[in-house]
Design brief:
The complex is a heterotrimer of chains A (422), B (292) and C (328).
Chain A (H helix, E strand, L loop, with lengths): L1 H25 L15 E7 L6 H20 L3 E3 L4 E3 L1 E7 L4 H14 L4 E3 L3 H14 L4 E3 L15 E3 L9 H10 L5 E6 L2 H16 L4 E7 L7 H8 L5 E5 L2 H13 L7 E3 L6 H8 L1 H4 L3 E3 L16 H11 L6 H19 L5 H11 L3 E3 L2 E3 L14 E7 L2 E8 L16
Parallel strand pairs in A: 1-4, 1-5, 5-6, 6-7, 8-9, 8-10, 10-11
Antiparallel strand pairs in A: 2-3, 12-15, 13-14, 15-16
Helix pairs in contact in A: 2-12, 3-4, 5-6, 12-13
Chain B lengths: L1 H30 L6 H19 L3 H29 L3 H24 L16 E3 L2 E3 L1 H23 L1 H11 L1 H6 L4 H26 L8 H15 L4 H21 L7 H12 L13
Antiparallel strand pairs in B: 1-2
Helix pairs in contact in B: 1-5, 1-8, 1-9, 1-10, 2-3, 2-4, 2-8, 2-9, 3-8, 5-6, 5-8, 6-8, 9-10, 9-11
Chain C lengths: L4 H9 L2 H25 L3 H24 L7 H18 L3 H18 L8 H19 L5 H4 L5 E2 L6 H24 L1 H11 L1 H6 L4 H27 L1 E2 L1 H4 L2 H14 L6 H19 L4 H15 L3 H20 L1
Antiparallel strand pairs in C: 1-2
The chains are: A alpha/beta (422), B mainly alpha (292), C mainly alpha (328).
């Protein structure tokens, strides 16, 4: 009797599933299509991390987008080329609490329920990941802000545009050239075992190997590592001429603190995030612990007086600081720049269809300079515009000043190697 | 060379880890409560240290003392609020696990609203900055200072537990609350007090976590709780002295792993828990009184 | 530990046919509900995740509700399932639905490997499974294993993406998990498990092989988590190890199960559907207070309704029944 009941329910289940499968597959394709009449508004949808591991980076980036929306709406909206007029922008944003799972359902909400015209991912690779296939399947262009993970960019996916940074695997190319140019031979590298940092370390290692330089210390550590005393001791036993640490901000901070508190001195110390969150590092590490440290010089520290889209560097700095006090950093610039990429795409797009919006972004590629530098996309939608220069932090009257030191074309200062000190 | 460095460094850090975990064991002590919010209490201790230093320029060493009475009272009140309800359940241990998970979420949420998301840290010159020179090696200042603060704290705690009359009552309640009640001990009040002491030890550790972890942020709690758990299980649940030894052994293992197999170093706490549970479930210093 | 005795007595008072039909209803109502929901609400991924959570809550139910062992590290099987099935698709080009089953087997295999943890009881077991799952995560995400698991770089299953199929599979998994719970609950196997929970000593004296039965429950539970993880990975498509080895997955599954009431067939389903809806409703409308409200719900639940929603229901049902008995 019991088994009969179970069999009956299984059979009924099969029927229901068949019905459901056929119906839901038809309901999946909800890609937007162009409409002849101009819409009353352009909806821009995104998520941000109101709390959790990514909040420090996500919130300023989100503020950058909000700033862009304010700027455009003050002019009556964003200019849409297809209708040759400005249309007001409506921003829809959900808080994903730094959870990729929550972000995934909210991305789906933005696409299927809110039917946004412009779909923007949250900060970073981890939170961008669940949006990639979703956008591709719904044929919606994903404006990927800072999700620089390698697996996102594939030849068949036409629905992704990386807006603000090059893919992480090419970041260290310039750094490697700098090391080679300085003829530094004994190098120690320590990286966190996550996509963002491990891909950089791998690239650096192979770049240097190609120049005949082998790393004397090359180790991954868990991303949760916050105590580097013993690791530094191991590194220092190799007597390296350069120590490179690839981590997130929460790793770079204790790393630099530990270098300082253990009384060690290296000729060159490189970490990833001081160039993106300099203010935070000044608070946490202090100027003494930062001076002569190397980092990636983001475009936030490069002055672009003439731009083809949006505000130039100086105007952005003053206007943004007025609108969002205390949030001005390279990530809020990234958020604003995402807005500019969207703006350019809408200007160039022949219609509001997603395919045309992507074509609009491709049309901007190579022809646009913003306060984030030159915008160039490869065929997979990945940013390959100007590479991040190597920068160094110098003591100054205001505490600490970041100057790009390599390559010469972008340099605003001269590298001091070896770093002076004890 | 590196081996010796890892051992000495491990001992220094291990003393901090002992302080970090002992509060969890104390909270477990009297009523078998599993405090999944342990890491969040530690986080609050860190914010207390930050506020006290930034607003009143109070040295973290002094803050360690200031947080004690406050957290004892908070812990005591919380205990009196929840213990009766947990006691009525048929499986208070398991229910406390879930209750304190909820509490941990509440603390995390409130901290985010109050303190914001950004990690906060204290300048390294808020404590003595000279590295410790030992056997020709130098160890980071925060390692030896935190160890130096933790040792008297732990000593006072042990004196309280094993040499004071209140401590005697605590131990009586832990070993048999019914018998203790017969002997005229107010088991509820004593358990509540001991629970508060557990909170206080956690908060003290939190002050130093700001240095050892390189800062304090609202979401750091759960990861700390898991590490603390590994240590108290290793040293035996309910046995504070076991926790102290286990903390130091953990510190040494962790530093050795960082030297020889860095990318696997966060396996240390988990491997420790699993190995302990499978080979000696009662922990290093456990008597076979509780079938684990 | 929640008592199922009341629920049992309630059910056993019904006629024989009622006990046979009720599992069918308990299975079909959520299945049909999910099948229809997609026509009303087109956020398919949200519904897929909800179905996955129903299955996970039922998986927790099989373990905790019937044996009293709380698998705090349940997410380990989930993550293993996502990886095993993902790698099965990428390396062997298995069709996703087959890969999901392979993922379930992977979960069960890891369950078998971890079965020595049964030497532990209560909180020790809960924490032991948590440590084991964190250890598995560390191993899978380690760069040394990049050639096998792709290490920290995660998996990209975009070539196998099919949201409709994944949703259908998730619904099938809901059915499988509920059928498993009904089976466990009504069979001799289930009675054994209940006996184990109520009194392990007398159960083993009565000739019941306690460890073996518990081991089977563990395997079923692990297989459900493995399949749930497989479908999650497939539906999410591009994921990093930390997204599938996420301890909050087991916490949510446990809270959902407890909220509804473990030891019953309906409880975890209702708990997961209700609370996950609330989770998303708050998350979308009132994000800054989301975590706070969620935490408070759990605290209040434990303090005032430790047996979950069904506990309430049975409390009232019993009152009414008693009244009726006295009226007769």
């Amino acid at each position: 009797m019991r088994t009969k009941a179970l069999l009956a329910s299984a059979a009924a289940l099969g029927v229901t599933l068949a019905a459901c499968g056929s119906s839901s597959s038809s309901s999946t394709s909800s890609g937007s299509s162009s409409t002849p009449a101009a819409p009353a508004q352009i909806t821009v949808g995104t998520t941000y991390s109101g709390s959790g591991a990514y909040a420090t980076s996500s919130i300023p980036e989100y503020d950058g987008i909000k700033f862009w929306v304010q700027q455009e709406n003050a002019k009556g909206g964003v200019f849409v080329g297809a209708y040759n007029k400005r249309i007001p922008v409506k921003l829809v944003a959900y808080n994903d609490l730094s959870s990729a799972t929550t972000a995934a359902t909210q991305y789906n909400q933005l696409i299927t329920q809110d039917k946004v015209n412009i779909f923007i991912a949250d900060f970073g690779s981890v939170l961008t990941a669940p949006a990639v296939s979703l956008a591709e399947a719904h044929k919606v262009v994903l404006f990927d802000q800072t999700g620089t993970g390698i697996p996102f960019f594939t030849p068949q996916n036409k629905y992704i545009v990386l807006c603000d940074l090059p893919v992480s695997s090419i970041w260290p190319d310039v750094l490697a050239k700098f090391i080679i140019s300085k003829k530094i031979k004994n190098i120690a590298a320590i990286y966190d075992t996550n996509d963002f940092d491990a891909s950089q370390a791998t690239t650096l290692k192979s770049d240097l190997a190609a120049a005949g330089i082998n790393l004397s210390y090359y180790q991954g550590v868990p991303t949760s590592t916050t105590s580097y005393g013993t690791l530094l001791q191991t590194i220092s036993a190799q007597k390296p001429d350069a120590v490179l640490e690839f981590g997130y901000a929460a790793n770079d901070t204790p790393f630099l603190q530990n270098v300082q508190s253990s009384g060690m001195h290296f000729k060159m110390v490189f970490t990833v995030f001081p160039g993106q969150l300099l203010g935070l590092f000044q608070q946490q590490v202090g100027n003494a612990g930062l001076q002569y440290t190397y980092t990636y010089g983001t475009n936030f520290y490069v002055n672009y007086p003439t731009v083809t889209e949006g505000l130039n560097s100086a105007t952005f700095a003053t206007d943004f600081a007025k609108a969002f006090p205390g949030q001005l950093n390279s990530l809020s610039l990234d958020g604003y720049n995402t807005g500019l990429v969207v703006q350019a795409s809408l200007k160039n797009a022949k219609s509001l269809s997603q395919a045309d919006i992507r074509a609009g972004a491709m049309a901007a590629s190579g022809n646009m300079t913003t306060l984030d530098g030159k915008f160039v996309l490869n065929s997979e939608g990945a940013q390959t515009g100007e590479l991040l220069p190597v920068a160094q932090l110098f003591p100054s009257s205001t505490g600490i000043t970041l100057k790009a030191v390599y390559p010469a074309s972008q340099a605003t200062g001269t590298a001091v190697y070896p770093a002076p000190g004890a | 060379m590196l081996f010796e460095y890892a051992i000495v460094g491990g001992i220094l850090l291990g003393i901090f880890y002992a302080l970090l975990s002992v509060g969890l064991n104390v909270v477990f002590g009297a009523q078998k409560i599993i405090n999944l919010a342990h890491g969040d209490v530690i986080m609050l201790g860190g914010y207390a240290a930050w506020e006290l230093y930034q607003t009143y320029k109070i040295s973290p060493i002094i803050s360690t003392i200031i947080v004690v009475p406050i957290t004892v009272v908070i812990g005591y009140l919380l205990n009196r609020l929840i213990a009766p309800r947990l006691g009525k359940s048929s499986d208070p241990e398991m229910l406390s696990l879930i209750l304190f998970f909820g509490l941990s979420q509440v603390i995390e949420a409130l901290s985010t609203l109050v303190f914001g998301n950004a990690e906060r840290s204290l300048p390294i010159n808020s404590i003595p900055t000279a590295p410790l020179k030992l056997f020709g090696e130098s160890y980071p200042a925060d390692w030896w200072v935190s160890a130096l603060v933790a040792i008297p704290l732990l000593a006072i705690f042990l004196l309280f537990l094993y040499r004071s009359s209140v401590g005697l009552q605590v131990r009586a309640v832990i070993s048999d609350s019914v018998e203790a009640a017969v002997a005229g001990i107010n088991a509820r009040r004593i358990s509540g007090l001991y629970f508060g002491v557990g909170f206080a030890l956690a908060a003290c550790a939190g002050v130093w976590g700001v240095f050892i972890f390189g800062g304090v942020s609202p979401t750091e709690g759960p990861a700390i709780t898991v590490t603390a758990f590994a240590i108290i299980v290793f040293g035996s649940l309910g046995n504070p002295i076991g926790t102290l030894v286990a903390g130091i052994i953990f510190g040494i293992f962790y530093q050795l792993a960082q030297v020889y197999v860095p990318s696997w170093s966060n396996l240390v706490p988990y491997a420790l828990v699993i190995a302990t549970m499978l080979t000696r479930p009662q922990g290093l210093f456990g008597r076979r009184q509780r079938v684990a | 530990m929640p008592k199922t005795a009341e629920i049992k007595t309630l059910q056993n008072t019904g006629s024989k046919t009622k006990t046979l039909i009720s599992p069918a209803i308990a299975t079909l109502v959520p299945v049909i509900g999910f099948a229809l929901a997609i026509h009303v609400y087109s956020n398919e991924l949200l519904l897929t995740y909800m179905a996955i959570y129903v299955a996970l809550a039922q998986g927790v139910n099989i373990m905790y509700g019937f044996t009293g062992y709380l698998p705090f590290g349940y997410f380990g099987f989930f993550g293993v399932g996502a990886y095993v099935s993902g790698l099965a698709m990428l390396n062997y080009n298995l069709p996703p639905v087959v890969a999901v089953i392979v993922g379930g087997l992977g979960g069960a295999l890891v369950g078998a490997i971890l079965s020595p943890l049964f030497r532990l009881r209560g909180a020790y077991f809960a924490i032991g499974t948590l440590a084991a799952s964190e250890a598995i995560y560390t191993i899978v995400a380690n760069p040394s294993l990049q050639s096998i698991t792709n290490g920290p770089y995660g998996l990209n299953l975009a070539n196998y993406y099919s949201s409709g199929m994944a949703y259908g599979s998730a619904i099938a998994l809901v059915a499988i998990s509920i059928i498993a719970v009904s089976y466990v609950r009504g069979s001799r196997f289930g009675l054994t498990l209940k006996a184990i929970r109520d009194d392990p000593y007398s159960a083993s004296m009565a000739g019941v092989n306690v460890p073996r039965q518990r081991f089977y429950a563990w395997l079923i539970s692990a297989a459900i988590a493995g399949m749930a993880g497989s479908i999650f990975g497939w539906a999410t498509s591009v994921f990093y190890p930390q997204a599938v080895f996420d301890s909050s997955l087991s916490v949510l599954a446990i809270v959902f199960a407890l909220f509804g009431g473990v030891g019953s067939v309906w409880g975890p389903t209702i708990g997961a559907v209700l609370l996950y809806s609330v989770y998303n409703a708050i998350g979308i409308s009132n994000p800054e207070y989301f975590q706070l409200i969620y935490g408070l719900v759990i605290v209040l639940l434990v303090l005032f309704a430790p047996r979950g929603l069904l506990g309430f229901w049975n409390f009232f049902a019993q009152k009414i029944r008693r009244k009726r008995v006295t009226n007769d």
